[in-house]
Amino acid sequence: RRYPNDYVRSLSSSFLWYSFETGAAHVSMLCSYADFRSGSAQYEWLKNDFARVNRKQTPWLVVIMHVPWYTSNQHHPMSEGREMMKAMEKLFLEHKVDIVFNGHVHAYERTHPVKYGEIDRESGIPYVTIGDGGNREQFAIPWKKRQPAWSALREFAYGFGIFEILNSSHAEWKWIRNNDTWNVNPHTLTGDRAIYNRLHKFWQ
Q1: N- or C-end of the chain: fewer Cβ atoms within 10 A?
Q2: pLDDT, tens digit, 9 for 90 and up, residues 7-50
């Protein structure tokens, strides 16, 4: 059985896209494999979902979807998410999405705040690919030889992430490597750490 989600509560017509609120965050879940074009059920739902967000009650707007729009992986290139990005990136930017989490690529990569392919620390969005939980296919090797400027960190290691909202403006992101033979730096399990200020759009 599928784990149930109360998609009807978020006025969605499908369990493939829905939203919920937790603490200070509004979280919108999207489907990379359903129609996302302008005018589609998913697109129209997302537009209305974003419009209903009360940023005084839930100042953080988080999006989660499977296929990343920004990735420097060669095995799963950006072309796999490009059409969805073309359809929805403007909507994300207009509604000031704070952070996007993806899977699909069996690796870890975090971007700087990015807008239409360029680093933009004032109005860009940071994207985190956290597809490194591990499975029988192992890592999505290789990376592209030239790491894009917008890619802050990329690594082949198994692990997990913790996104902790500290208050209405600041959050901490930590990526923790597993303590296993694939850990490229066995002396530390913390592979990445960033403090995000959503009001001034920067990581430190």
Answers
A1: N
A2: 999 999 999 999 999 999 999 999 999 999 999 999 999 999 99
Rounded Cα–Cα distance for residues 38 and 30 (Å): 14
- To the query of whether residue 170 is one of the catalytic residues in this protein, the response is no
Nearest of 82, 66, 71, 80 to residue 144 by alpha carbon: 71
Torsion 111-114-116-117 (CA) sign:
negative
> Catalytic: which of 66, 75, 76, 170?
76
Place of tokens 């969605």: 12
Query: What is the β-pairing status of strands 118-119 and 99-102?
Result: unpaired
The pLDDT score that the predictor gives to residue 199 is 81
Is residue 106 within 8 A of residue 130, CB to CB? The reply is: no
What backbone phi and psi angles, to 5 degrees, belong to 201?
A: 55, 60
What distances in angstroms separate CA 83 from CA 35, 48, 80, 86, 103, one per listed residue? 10, 21, 8, 5, 17
pTM over 0.90: yes
